[in-house]
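hey
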């Protein structure tokens, strides 16, 4: 429960790209994901299979789709990022700099930290 977000920043980027394609009404393709991220199709294939094993995406006849668990993990990371960013801004750091700093460790924040801020 208190472990934090289950996904890495790289996994989050893949999920964002796939979800963006899904939101446009279609399944993602390995080629499309690779092109969007500027990686080889082999790298995209490997990472997508990794995400499938984690239950964060699924392969269907019409493409690759983010699962409900994948959406939950994306939302968890976004929530953690916002909490860290808000704390940094309240500490006097410029909002743009706070965002950049939050990206460095938001995925590693204990779940208890950001849930205590979002539940109040």
């Amino acid at each position: 429960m208190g472990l934090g977000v289950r996904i890495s920043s790289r996994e989050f980027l893949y999920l964002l790209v796939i979800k963006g394609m899904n939101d446009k009404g279609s399944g993602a393709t390995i080629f499309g994901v690779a092109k969007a991220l500027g990686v080889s199709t082999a790298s995209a294939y490997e990472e997508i299979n990794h995400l499938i094993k984690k239950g964060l995406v699924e392969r269907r006849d019409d493409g690759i789709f983010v699962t409900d668990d994948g959406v939950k993990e994306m939302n968890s990371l976004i929530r953690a990022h916002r909490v860290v960013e808000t704390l940094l801004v309240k500490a006097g750091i410029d909002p743009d700099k706070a965002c950049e700093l939050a990206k460095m460790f938001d995925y590693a924040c204990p779940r208890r930290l950001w849930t205590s801020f979002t539940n109040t």
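Residues 9-67 form a domain with the Arc Repressor Mutant, subunit A fold (CATH 1.10.10.10). The two ends are 18 Å apart (CA to CA).
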